[in-house]
Amino acid sequence: MDISDVRCETTRFGIGRSQCGSKASQRIANASIRVMIERARETAPSEPGVYKMPCGECVVDFFITAGGEERWLVAGDGHSCTRESVVVARHGEHPWVRLYSLADAAAEIARLAALSDGDLHHVVAGLIESIDDREVEIIARERAGMREVPRAEVADRFGVELGDERDPAPDA
């Protein structure tokens, strides 16, 4: 992505031409954008690992491929990003925060496998179950604040007649 792409994007967000009346104002806005991008590039991580991004919400897995290319996988995005695209598109008030390095994650998995008699499949299954449990807990907390509505009230609202729940046999 070059700076002309950034100008197009910033115009979309109200920073470009429509906000700048003269060519001098446009040059000032473009210079400001270049400075912001350069500052963001300088603060981006240089060591592979998993990081919380400056927006304060996104997480990125930064690694270097066998071919020596940098790759940035942002959680929720379906594709690999470059340093430039992450720097331009993902910015905010928060500093980059390293959550853990890939070596740390590999060491923890190895430690857990050693405790499980070297059964890596058991460790991975346990990690997946743990993640699932956390997701269930989040949903349960979200629903805890919701008002419960009796089934009869819902049935009335939608014009559904409830049968006798004590007799599970279908009507003949």
Q: Describe it for me?
A:
By secondary structure, the protein is an alpha+beta fold. The protein is 49% helix and 12% strand. It contains six helices and five strands, in the order ααββββαβααα. It has a five-stranded antiparallel sheet with strand order 4-3-2-1-5. Helix 4 (102-115) crosses helix 5 (120-144). It is flat, with a radius of gyration of 26 Å. Residues 1-20 have low confidence and may be disordered.
Brief account:
Helix content is 49%, strand content 12%. It is of the alpha+beta class and 172 residues long.
Secondary-structure element order, N to C: HHEEEEHEHHH
Kindly state the mean pLDDT as a whole number?
77
- Major sheet attributes: 5 strands, antiparallel
Which regions have little confidence, pLDDT < 50, spanning 5+ residues? 1-20
Task: Estimate the global geometry from the Cα principal axes.
Answer: flat
Secondary structural class: alpha+beta
Write out the strand line-up for the largest beta sheet, numbering strands in chain order: 4-3-2-1-5
Helical content band: 40-55%
Tally the helices: what do you get?
A: 6
Proportion of residues in extended strands? 5-15%
The number of strands is: 5
CA(first)-CA(last) distance: 69 Å
Computed over alpha carbons, the radius of gyration is 26 Å
